[in-house]
Every structure is written in C-alpha cells, then in structure tokens.
Amino acid sequence: MHQTIADRVKALRHRLNLTQHALGQLAGVSKQAVSQWERALTEPHWEALLALQASRGVNPRWLLHGEGPMLLGEGAEPATAGGCAGLVHPIVVWDDPADLPEGQYVLIPRRRVALSAGNGNLVFEEEEAPPLAFTSDWARQTGVRPGNAVVVYAKGDSMEPGIRDGDVLLVDTDIECDRVREGRVYALRYGQELRVKRLFRRYDGALILRSDNAGRYPDEIIPPEHQNGQVHVIGRVVWRGGGV
After folding, report:
1. Measuring CA to CA, which residue among 79, 71, 53, 76 is closest to residue 12?
2. What span, in angstroms and rounded, lies between the C-alpha atoms of 45 and 68?
3. Domain 97-241: which CATH number of 2.10.109.10, 3.90.190.20, 3.30.1490.20, 3.30.70.1660
4. CATH architecture of 5-65
5. From the first residue on, what is the mean pLDDT of each consecutive set of 10 residues in the chain (244 residues)?
6. Where are the domains of the chain?
7. pTM (2 decimals)?
C-alpha cells in the first residue's frame, strides 16, 4: 500500500508517542498545522522538517519521500558521537571562499535587510554583507540554486516560535506569486514594507497573510484588486538559523 506524507506524519507522531500539539511544538507550528498535515491538506515546510531533525533526529527525506529510516541513526544512516546521529557536522572556518573545500560548498549572498516578522519594517537601502556557505549536498536536497537564493534577517515576533527576532533566513527567490504553495512561509513586499508570513489563497483569489503567533497578530486579507502593484512575493523561506 502506498504511504503518503500524511500517513508518515501520523506514523511519526505515534512512534514518538506525541499529541498533535506536542509534535507542533517540536516543529515550531500549531496543532492545527499538524492536523492539516495528517489530513493531507498541506505538507510540512522545510523549516518544520529542520526543527524536527534537530529536536528528535527525524529524517526529512523519509518524511517527504519515504526514503531511508524514519529516524536518523537507524538502519542505513551512519551514527555519530554523542547520540545525535546524522546531525553533527564539522565546522569549517574560512576567511576567503578559496579556503573552502573545492566543490563541497555553495555561497549564498547575504543582505542587510530586516524582513518584518511583526508589524512591518520600512527599508530604505540594502547593503550586501559577506556570503554564507552551505554544503552543496544540502543545496541539491532542498532544490535551492545559489543564483536564486539570498540570506536576510527576520524582525519581530509574529512568526514565533518557528522564526524569532533576528533569525537568519535563507530565501529561495525562484518563485512567482501565482505559484505560492498553501501554508508555506514566504518573504514578501507589501506596499513599502517587507514581511515574513505564511501565505494562503482564499476561494475568491484573496491572499491571506498569516502569522504563527496568531494570538497577537490576526490574519491580513488582501483582496485581488489590491494585490497588483502592492504585493510582491520575494521568495520562499527554506531555512532559518538563530540562537537557542
């Protein structure tokens, strides 16, 4: 019998003996989001997969494609020291791109831009900072091409707990507004503001900007007639980095 992503989410939750609320806390999403995963209404986004990998060693490839073991460290995945199988990688120190092992890393440009994860932050200029290095294997796995990606910074608390104020965000800019996938997190310009929001399309074509911190930030509804010239999807957030 063919197993779907929804089936695997349920199997994972039962294996870890977690409620939907508890699994959502680990993934940085709401209980409702987990319920939607299990009903095949939406799919886990990449930042949720990374959170599950970091917290419980969940294998993203298994959850998305059914490949390999459910948990890293089981079966074919090699174990690493300290009980964090598959999660420990050597730190590479570099001052110049030439210092990196040839062919093993890609460089993603970084912009000194504060994307609003709150009520919006006016941006008057963009200043380029030194790039960040990601492994080539990771870039291939996520489908991110270096020429279509940029690293920016989140501002505000509307996307907590998944994205926090000051977090580093990798944005895949190879996306168009009409290709928005329901429930994924996107960086977008709304008027003169830069936002980080979870996007949904309503039945009438309206765009819903939703915050994960919904208790403080209600949905923003943008009708179709107000979208042209006002809303521009910069790209999908595929990775976040920040303090613990």
Report:
1. 71
2. 19
3. 2.10.109.10
4. Orthogonal Bundle (1.10)
5. 85 90 86 90 81 81 84 52 36 61 77 64 57 78 78 85 84 71 83 84 88 88 82 84 66
6. 5-65, 97-241
7. 0.59
